[in-house]
Design brief:
single chain, 190 residues, mainly alpha, 10 helices, 2 strands, globular
């Protein structure tokens, strides 16, 4: 693949989508410890189930607006009127089951925060705070375990493939392709 800036990137990044390039270069795979951002990414990954990440990425701003900037308390309190409004919003994915799951998953996310002192503490405890380096997978023992635990707690759209993609996105699993200019670079975003 030829990149205009001559930096090699992961095969999945679309060189024709500037937003995708920025996401790949600046966000994907960077360890994340901020609960607000972890919640936002979890909701987006759940909506992505069965779709392409590029589809979600292109609608990210609309999702942010529709979901009150992913304010956890606001999403937890959504009632039928808000669910109906979201289902009728042509700027986002209007899957009723995913919209309902966003609300119930938000409530479970909050329960996990209360249990662990934060969702970041819950998420990172699975690896003792360490980043896992692997690539070429769509799920792993780690994503299997977390998926199973989240499902047991009642979350929806959190199968092992979705959770693996989530772990990659938030930097728990670092998966830049061999030859990508970010292959060995890990930063921290908060």
């Amino acid at each position: 693949m030829q990149w205009t800036d001559e930096k090699n990137r992961c095969r999945w990044a679309n060189p024709k989508n500037e937003r995708y390039i920025r996401y790949h270069d600046e966000e994907w795979g960077v360890p994340l410890h901020d609960d607000h951002k972890l919640f936002e990414m979890l909701i987006l990954e759940c909506f992505q189930a069965g779709l392409s990440w590029e589809c979600i990425l292109n609608k990210w701003d609309a999702f942010r607006e529709a979901f009150d900037d992913f304010d956890l308390d606001a999403v937890c309190a959504y009632g039928e009127d808000k669910l109906e409004s979201l289902q009728n919003n042509p700027s986002i994915i209007r899957n009723r089951l995913k919209i309902q799951a966003a609300v119930s998953n938000a409530q479970i996310f909050r329960e996990i925060q209360q249990e662990y002192g934060g969702f970041a503490e819950y998420l990172w405890h699975w690896t003792d705070g360490k980043v896992i380096y692997e690539r070429g997978l769509s799920h792993s023992e780690l994503s299997d375990l977390i998926s199973k635990d989240l499902k047991k707690r009642g979350m929806k759209f959190v199968g092992t493939t979705v959770i693996y993609a989530y772990l990659q996105a938030v930097g728990v699993i670092y998966s830049h392709d061999e030859g990508c200019f970010l292959e060995h670079k890990v930063g921290i975003r908060r």
